[in-house]
Specification:
Layout (H helix, E strand, L loop, with lengths): L2 E7 L5 H9 L16 E4 L6 E5 L11 H14 L4 E9 L3 H18 L3 E6 L1 H6 L6 H8 L3 E3 L8 H9 L19 H15 L5 H13 L4 H19 L2 H18 L6 H19 L2 H16 L2 H15 L7 H9 L1 H7 L6 H10 L9 H11 L4 E2 L4 E2 H27 L21 H35 L11 H13 L6 H9 L6 H13 L8 H7 L4 H13 L4 H11 L3 H27 L3
Parallel strand pairs: 1-3, 1-4, 4-5, 5-6
Antiparallel strand pairs: 2-3, 7-8
Length: 614
């Protein structure tokens, strides 16, 4: 019989990190409120027939935000499930009072339903590092529940936890069944939490003083903003500098594999398909996967360190001007990786109106699906030169610029909408917890970045393969690829060509843009397939050289960048947005509005650059 174990805790207590350690899954781990927005389950790696269920972090069982509402409702339903055998309540011993109030509420609800509770005292490694102690035995007596020391980051205490859950710890006390707080109201539980923290918690304010000293710099009115700008710039600069060796290795590996595989394929048709569709189409996309890894790793490092909450606070004041809140920063930055988790993360925004405005902004954030397109166009049109002794790369600066152009467009949209519509909702005050600064757990960060790359490949790879095969088929027949302009694809291109001629783009780019409405990154695979058909005898992987040889002008290249920065071209994002917003009308309106705005913006930049001689 399969049993379930519930894992619950407040935000920033390390719950998701512990979940990953116990199950081997790679749930997103970050060090700011509002990151876990869905109920997640996974099988225990070391316990047979046992499922661990992880709920979103919440500060109390009296929900305020939509995320807390999900957590509380699912937790109450879970307590009614007969398959649930235990409840694991994770607490942060460095912030004991905050954790204990929620813990007392959890114990009360479990006592009412006869579910045993095991309290896990996390962050014990941080206390040990500062020479601080907490009286867990006394706390266990007061709570009438076992309290185990644990470190989700290092894994210390996990074997003891597993022994408890297996029932192998013969020396352990039996599960208590004291009903002392089963009928205690919340107001008394809050007072009890304060008294217990003072009585059994760590002595001294060393942790608070350390955090305050760092906050004095990162939240400084001048230095904090400068540090934020530098950190964001280094984030996008690293996309080129750190990923370049891996991209070169992937390109060389694909080229070597193509030279090895293509001669082994029987028949000229099979050789052409393998070379043009697979290696030129799929290969052109796979080259950019290392940049997805670097982007995910660096953002995860900033999240796990606790800096993202400070960045949200820094952004609150300027975001208010655009109708948003500092809490919008977290979903918007999540949208840099992918719009879908960004839309989910918007549940943590208390105000319905600001949540709607955040929905409008997230699709304009420069997501990782745009990254291959941006990288391809920047590498084709921006020279690979450096300045200041190699510290600043022109291509990295261009990436920084196009990313912030998308963010600026997002803020412009929210500013216009917030001023054009009356506010029918009463906003709650902006309250954001400042988590402690922590050294990131490197292994989960690497695993998360790797999982993100695999997800990106598997999610987009199927679509790209299907589109690439169709594009190759239409471009290869009826003349065997002898003349691409005379193929069926050429006929389709001439049909859509007039729409993109004002941007200086020929029919090939028009076809690639149309196929990219399935997913933005399909643009790269489509171009790779078409240029592969035209240049089958040349190197089958580097697409940049083919674009440069096609004599596409700088004005057209910049127009493409602007179009992809603004246009909403992701079917999956529209589907999730429709579900989260509870409206099919909203994503359709956004698709039409952003598509028109993207085209007009591309046309404007094309005319401007052409006028200036580009």
């Amino acid at each position: 019989m399969t049993r379930k174990i519930i894992l619950i805790g407040s935000p920033n207590c390390g719950k998701s990190l512990l979940f990953n350690r116990l199950t081997g899954l790679s749930q997103k781990v970050a060090n700011f409120p509002g990151i876990t927005v869905e109920v997640t389950s996974g099988h225990f790696a070391d316990l047979e027939n046992t499922t661990l269920v992880d709920y979103p972090g919440t500060y109390s069982l009296q929900p305020i935000s939509g995320e807390e509402q999900v957590a509380v409702e699912q937790f109450q339903q879970g307590l009614e499930d007969p398959e649930v055998s235990h409840v694991l309540c994770l607490i942060d011993v460095t912030r004991l009072e905050k954790s204990l109030y929620f813990t007392l509420q959890v114990i009360r609800e479990c006592e009412r339903r006869g579910k045993p509770v095991l309290v896990l005292a996390n962050m014990m490694d941080i206390l040990a590092g500062h020479g601080l102690e907490v009286d867990l035995e006394g706390l266990s007596r007061e709570l009438s529940a076992p309290v185990l020391p644990i470190s989700a980051r290092t894994g210390k205490g996990v074997p003891e936890l597993l022994c408890r859950l297996r029932g192998e710890d013969a020396a352990a006390d039996p599960w208590p069944h004291d009903e002392g707080i089963a009928h205690t109201p919340d107001v008394l539980l809050r007072g009890n939490a304060h008294q217990l923290a003072r009585k059994y918690g760590p002595r001294g304010d060393l942790l608070v003083r350390t955090q305050t000293r760092l906050d004095g710099f990162f939240l400084h009115s001048a230095f904090g903003g400068l540090a934020f700008f530098v950190i964001m710039y280094l984030l996008f600069q690293s996309i080129f500098t750190w990923a370049a060796p891996a991209m070169d290795a992937v390109e060389a590996g694909l080229g070597w594999l193509a030279e090895l595989v293509v001669p082994l394929v029987p028949g000229q048709l099979g050789k052409d398909f393998t070379a043009d569709a697979l290696f030129s189409g799929m290969g052109a996309f796979l080259v950019f996967v290392p940049q997805i890894f670097v982007l995910t790793f660096v953002i995860g490092m900033l999240e796990d360190s606790g800096y993202m909450a400070r960045a949200a606070l820094i952004c609150h004041k300027p975001l208010r001007f655009f109708g948003l809140t500092g809490k919008s920063f977290i979903p918007m930055l999540s949208g840099v990786a992918c719009a879908i988790p960004g839309i989910y993360a918007a549940r943590s925004i208390d105000s319905p109106r600001k949540r709607l405005l955040t929905y409008l902004a997230i699709p304009l954030m420069p997501c990782s699906a745009r990254l291959p397109v941006y990288t391809l166009l920047i590498a084709a049109f921006i020279p690979n030169t450096t300045a200041f002794g190699g510290l600043v790369g022109v291509q990295g600066a261009a990436m920084f610029g196009i990313y912030f152009f998308g963010m600026f467009c997002a803020l412009l949209v929210t500013a216009l909408v917030s001023r054009s519509r009356a506010d029918h909702f009463t906003d709650l005050p902006f309250v954001l917890e400042m988590p402690p600064y922590r050294v990131p757990a490197w292994a989960p960060l690497v695993r998360k970045a790797w999982q993100r790359c695999k997800h990106f490949i598997t999610k987009a790879g199927g679509i790209i393969l299907a589109v690439t095969v169709v594009v190759w088929f239409l471009g290869y027949f009826p003349n065997g690829g002898a003349d691409l302009s005379a193929s069926w694809l050429g006929q389709l291109g001439r049909f859509v060509g007039p729409l993109f001629e004002p941007l200086g783009l020929d029919w090939r780019y028009g076809v690639a843009i149309l196929t990219s409405f399935l997913a933005r990154e399909v643009f790269v695979g489509t171009l790779g397939a078409m240029f592969g058909i035209e240049s089958a005898e040349e190197n089958m992987v580097p697409l940049v050289s083919h674009i440069q040889a096609s004599e596409l002008g700088l004005a057209s290249g910049l127009a493409l960048l602007v179009f992809f920065a603004i246009a909403l071209m992701c079917v999956s994002t529209m589907a999730i947005l429709s579900r989260e917003a509870g409206s099919r009308r909203l994503p359709l309106q956004m698709f039409a509005a952003y598509g028109v705005a993207g085209y007009l913006g591309a046309l404007a930049i094309y005319q401007l650059v052409s006028f200036l001689g580009g």
